[in-house]
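Quick one: structure tokens for this chain, please?
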Amino acid sequence: MSEQNIYHRKIVKKQLHSEALNTTRDYWVYLPPGYNELTTYHVVYCQDGLEFLNFGRIATITNRLIIEENMQPIIIAGLHVDMPNRTEEYSPDGVRYPAYRQFWTEEFIPEIERDFPVGNTRSERVLAGDSLGATVSLHLALDYPDHYSQILSLSGAFLEPTRQRLQQERDLSWLELYQLIGLQETAVPTQRGTFDFLSANREAKQLLEEKSAAVNYVEAEGKHIWGFWQKHLPAGLLHFFS
């Protein structure tokens, strides 16, 4: 297959007004090679959608996996982040998290399901996120277990509020994660301070497995940057769609 076919991506750009957030959000949707409206596709929903597209190169990577490695064709929906409010929307204790959670589940997901031929069960959805994007993806699943059960986590900010929540859970046998963390992520600066993400992910993994979640846990040489996450995105996608 030619390189031109791999890099030719079909991206639809749209907007959605949110009553819950009282704002309008941009988003994009990737359609796979051979896209057919009569087919029902599994779908990856990305936090930090524009970053996943531009820095993670998720559309190009997915094209290559489908064309060259016979990966199951999927649709990807990437929601643009409101950067000034990212921490307050993505953190489980953020003041805007309840509204963001409502927007995501009651407005954004139904919008995608109305306009594109995607599955509407939790086994047909994967939530993907980096850092706090992985955190909010996990908490969405914990808050709506009937809606989401598969998480692609790239260096999740699984700090104390998340670990406390995991400790409170009784049975997570319904939950599946691909969990990546870099060995150099021991002092990651955030808006709320500098944290050891490596230790936090190790603790979160232990808690998840104690509650019977299925965790494909990967530690690798890498820092808290998109270059690291992009390198491991193919393995994360293949974990769910090979």
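The chain has one domain: 3-241.
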